[in-house]
Amino acid sequence: MVLSAEEKLMYEVMKAIYDSGIPISFKGSMVMKACLMEAGYTEDTRHTVDIDGNWNTDVPPSAEQMVDSIQKALDENGIPLIVSIYRMYGEERSAGFELKNNSTEEILFTMDLDVNRPITPTRIYEIQGIRFCGSAPKQMLADKISVISSDKVFRRIKDVVDLYYYSQVLKLDRDEILQTLADSGRRIGDFDGFINRTEELKHSYEKFRFSGGINKPAFEDVYQSVKTFVAEML
């Protein structure tokens, strides 16, 4: 699997945060890539330019506390980036951070952190000597299956793409997924859009861009693989 220069740097940031003890667990595409690599997946996957995570503490952190903690972790690990916050967290809103080159002040990537949301299952990942705490595979599968079971699937076609990647290396346990959804307060829909509106789904997929020259599989291959993978949920 080819990682972009930004993705390699993002993993270094995630390792620095984990080693520092900041109460952040990661989720999203960077965790998916680590999960796939650990499972032996070797093909290239869609690139990403952001880090997603959860910050959980007994006392809600201030913007200054979050920025200072992350900046200290980067500085202690010799990572030449400047952290700034451009969006404070709130109800149903994540905190947004920009990470810039400390010489040019060019924004290299962003980080979105949900603060004190319900805690979900995590595990420790390790790839190429980099360790961090991230969402457990069952949680990532449950979240994406919840999305494609609803009409959100047309706005979040990337979740269909990610389930295609997962279908190559993971097995789905229906009872485990249903329990994980129940534990995290998420609901499962009727999959009407995914099953009965395939032309609209194909249109959304064709508009979705794969950056960095990554091969974009044919829609039919993606759709059939995902449909087979989630068959027990349909």
Distance between the termini: 31 Å
Q: How would you name the oligomeric state of the polypeptide chains in this document?
A: single chain
Provide the β-strand percentage band: 15-25%
Helical stretch count? 9
Major sheet: 5 strands, mixed
Query: Helical residue percent?
Result: 40-55%
In the sheet with the most strands, the strands line up as 1-2-5-4-3
The poorly predicted ranges are: none
Secondary structure class reads: alpha+beta
H/E topology pattern: HEHEHEEEEEHHHHHH
Tell me the overall shape.
globular
Q: Specify Rg, calculated over alpha carbons.
A: 18 Å
Report the strand count. Answer: 7
Mean pLDDT: 95
Describe this structure in words.
With 234 residues, the chain is α+β, with helices and mostly antiparallel strands. It has helices at residues 5-20, 29-38, 63-76, 137-148, 157-167, 174-183, 192-196, 198-207, 219-229, and strands at 24-27, 50-55, 81-87, 95-101, 107-115, 122-127, 130-135. Helices cover 42% and strands 19% of the residues. The protein has a five-stranded mixed beta sheet. It has a two-stranded antiparallel ribbon with strand order 6-7. The longest helix is centred in the N-terminal third of the chain and has 16 residues, at 5-20.
